[in-house]
Amino acid sequence: MALTADSTIAELLREKPESAQVLFRFGMGCLGCAIANNETIREAAQVHGVPVEEMLAALGIAEA
Question: Least packed by Cβ within 10 Å: which of 4, 20, 61, 64?
Answer without folding.
Answer: 64
